[in-house]
Predict the structure.
Amino acid sequence: MDTLKEMGIKMDIYNYDNYVWFDYQDMGFDAIEDKSDRYIILEYMDLRELGDAENAERLRRIFNKVSKNCDVVISSSVKFTRYRRKILFIEEIPNLEGYLRYELEELIRATEIVNEELQKELEKENKTIEQNDLKDLESTPTKDLFIETITEMDCGYEVWHDKEAYFESIVFDYQTVKWRATFYESSRKVLIENLYSICGVELNNPDKLKKLREAINNANQQYDAIAIYDIDYKRYKMYAEVGYTIPFMAEMPNLISYLHSVLNALSDAYTDIKFEMEDPEEIEDKYHLYQEPS
């Protein structure tokens, strides 16, 4: 007790002389004098509950590991955990104050190691859970993953029925345009393209054909989306279309934002080509149709 007083430590003495409670570094300790008057037992009681059987097994495994590396006895019950360290404590020991501080620091270090090991165990378990969840997601077909994503984006969709098609497709709406998504499960990729052609130009109209090619080239220079033209010789027309083949897999971060950016690029390319090919006279006629009579 004299040593504790010299250290300036506040303490409480219980009804029996061999039991002292004191505070050190904001932690409450007990000092129990051995019957031989040569040893004392330093004890810290952590009010950590064992919890369920899984957590209890985890903690006991950590306690056993720490006890082997520190001269500290760790025991646990349902309501708390005790850290105990038995030390020789006699007047012949030089610098008793420094000696006691060292022993208390060792006891504190044991509690810190337990907390560190527990944190490592929990992080390891959480990482395992995340990896298992990711494996489950990776096993999700590309089509199902894509549908889940556009559903979260509030895009309506329907299955595209084509008996001659080798790959599965769906049709969905985004920014007033209908798009078709075709799924390549083996490579986990999706081809997104407009369902209906942007515009059609007669093959015998060289001026409009030139204008359409320029509009397509401009779109390809500005956007990641690929703009192409397709010639239908039966109808004797050239059509403009935009499309983009993208990787689409569960391990990619933030799929919703990713898909939004892809669809926005497609929509911008689609809109630019459409506006480039609009006939000013037709636009003016449409405008007059909606004018209120004077």
Observations:
- Confidence is low (pLDDT under 50) at residues 280-294.
